[in-house]
Design brief:
With about 525 residues, the chain is an all-alpha fold. It has helices at about 5-35, 40-60, 65-80, 80-110, 110-115, 125-140, 140-155, 160-180, 185-215, 230-260, 265-300, 305-350, 360-375, 380-390, 400-420, 425-450, 455-480, 485, 495-515; strands at about 1-5, 530. Strands 1-2 form a two-stranded antiparallel ribbon. The radius of gyration is 23 Å and the shape is globular.
Length: about 525
């Protein structure tokens, strides 16, 4: 069978969009029920959720697959399917042993790991105790995510992306069900329900991917764990690759730890993080996931020109989509937070039981300020995901690891310097600045190796997209103050006006791009280069 890179991207992005829509619903309900500032449950839950959520993003959103897929595809290309299956079983056995052991350690020594995530939480307080409890409940989720990442890699190597992209839906569904069921209960019960729902969703995601792999002919059996030569090779490639792809997540955890000294800051950062993750997931993670197997095949076939063209078109497509998202988040952050966490949340909660959103105007202002700073880093976050596959496809994980270490060091130093002056906003700024450093180093490395040549079309259209993004931002700044005036037309719901302004701004951006000759659907036919699927 034949499948196009563009169609695979549409599959992943479409299901990711559905997941993120549900994620918005989940985030709105959680913020509305447990709030942010002045509530120990909110900070405790989001701090405890950091570690399992980080590993979910690493295993299920590409970092693990970056090392696994090229090796797995090498087995498919040079040997038989049975050899690839055996390799997957060997890796599964080792992962389960290592991560089950880690899970046991974390559950026993949870207070130590709470200090790693949020050293600002004082021992003996309700916030510290709740964080410890939630972490113990949620951390077994890690073992499930390791298997989700492995099975996703198997399916993605065969060009099957649907189950992989659909898995995060289950996390949102489980957490929405939990917060809906306990919306009228004491807030401590709601936090406990969310922690249990997170663990249950891990099992559900594993079962979905297990079913998908079974349909593809990969019913993996459990082997005795052994450090075989293939597993050693995976570890040699995977350890630096894991860190290089994980830099954003490590920076967020470092930032959470520093910000935990400010009450409410962990919740403000987490809510802002969830919002800017939308364009990152829809564009960067989705594009990076389908680009890696495509580039791996091109590299193994010796088609350097084809790999270079795919990278140019991926950067062009990502810029077309991420630059307007960045512009909107930067100039519209606070109205968007008010729309989601107060306007929509209040209407949803009143429908459920008549209560007001627990998210205060202070929470809106603080979350909006953090979101604006994160928005400035969105292009860098996305382009990291596009550049990394160009290294991983050539089985080079050490070079991006060095770049990641530089970004982590810069983030840590900047956050420590800025926090005393700007509080948690210094943490958000440090995260975005470090992301730009890492993206720049990745691009420079490929240029120096003669493995990336920005063509004339890419350079020209980047200028067009920047001009269109500037025009879109100007329109938003002009139109947003009219929201309160227009609200009576929509039953005094100004959040509807804000969403309309955002939609009109997106159309305005598209018209500018088309008017300046920046994009046509036919332009991306080169992304439809076909790649054979193994059956």
């Amino acid at each position: 069978m034949r499948a196009s890179l563009l169609r695979s991207l549409a599959t992943v992005s479409g299901l990711t969009l559905l997941s993120r829509v549900l994620g918005f619903g989940r985030q709105v309900l959680i913020a509305g029920v447990i709030g942010a500032s002045g509530n120990p449950v909110a900070d405790a839950f989001w701090a405890a959720f950091r570690l399992p959520n980080m590993f979910r993003r690493l295993f299920a959103e590409g970092a693990f697959q970056a090392a696994f897929i090229p090796l797995f595809q090498g087995k498919l290309s040079g040997e038989e399917k049975d050899a690839a299956k055996q390799f997957a079983e060997e890796v599964a056995a080792f992962l389960l042993l290592a991560l089950s052991g880690l899970t046991a350690v974390v559950m026993v020594a949870a207070p130590i790991f709470v200090y790693v995530v949020a050293s600002g939480f004082e021992q003996g307080t309700d916030k510290f105790s709740l964080t410890t409890l939630y972490l113990r409940i949620m951390f077994p989720y890690l073992a499930c995510m390791s298997m989700v990442g492995l099975l996703s890699g198997v399916l993605n190597a065969h060009g099957r992306f649907a189950a992989y992209a659909a898995a995060p839906l289950l996390l949102n569904i489980c957490q929405i069900a939990a917060i809906y069921s306990f919306a009228d209960s004491p807030v401590e019960h709601a936090g406990l329900a969310l922690a249990v729902a997170t663990m249950v969703s891990g099992v559900a995601q594993f079962l979905l991917l297990f079913w998908g792999a079974q349909r593809q002919g990969y019913r993996l059996r459990l082997r005795p764990p052994k450090l075989t030569p293939d597993v050693k090779r995976l570890l040699a490639l995977g350890a630096p690759g894991f860190l290089s792809a994980a830099a954003v997540q490590v920076n967020i955890v470092v930032g959470t730890n520093i910000a935990s000294r400010q009450p409410g800051a962990v919740s403000w950062l987490m809510n802002a993080d969830q919002l800017y993750q939308l364009p990152l997931s829809l564009i960067g993670i989705a594009l990076g996931s389908v680009l890696l197997p495509h580039l791996s095949r091109k590299v193994k076939e010796g088609d350097d020109a084809g790999a270079d063209d795919a990278l140019n078109r991926a950067l062009e497509l990502s810029a077309l989509l991420c630059l307007p998202a960045a512009a909107a988040l930067m100039v519209m952050a606070e109205p968007l937070c008010d729309t989601l966490f107060r306007g929509i949340a209040t209407d949803a909660l009143q429908f459920m039981g008549g209560r007001e959103s627990a998210f205060t105007p202070l929470d809106v202002a603080m979350t909006g300020a953090a979101l604006s700073l994160f928005g400035a880093g969105v292009p860098a976050f996305v382009w990291q995901k596009v550049f990394l596959p160009a290294y991983f496809a050539r089985e080079d994980t050490k070079t991006p690891m060095n770049f990641a270490l530089a970004a982590i060091a810069l983030n840590t130093v900047l956050a420590l310097i800025l926090f005393p002056f700007f509080g948690f906003l210094g943490v958000a700024a440090a995260t975005s600045i470090a992301a730009w450093l890492q993206a720049g180093l990745l691009a420079r490395g490929l240029l120096a190796r003669d493995q990336f040549h920005p063509d004339a079309r890419l350079r020209k259209r980047l200028v067009v997209f920047l001009l269109a993004g500037g025009g879109m931002a100007a329109f938003i700044i002009w139109a947003t103050p009219f929201a309160p005036t227009l609200a009576p037309i929509f039953l005094d719901r100004s959040w509807i006006v804000i969403l309309l302004i955002a939609g009109i701004a997106a159309v305005f951006y598209g018209l500018i791009v088309i008017g300046l000759g920046g994009a046509r659907l036919s332009d991306y036919k080169s992304l439809a280069t076909t790649a054979t699927k193994s059956e």
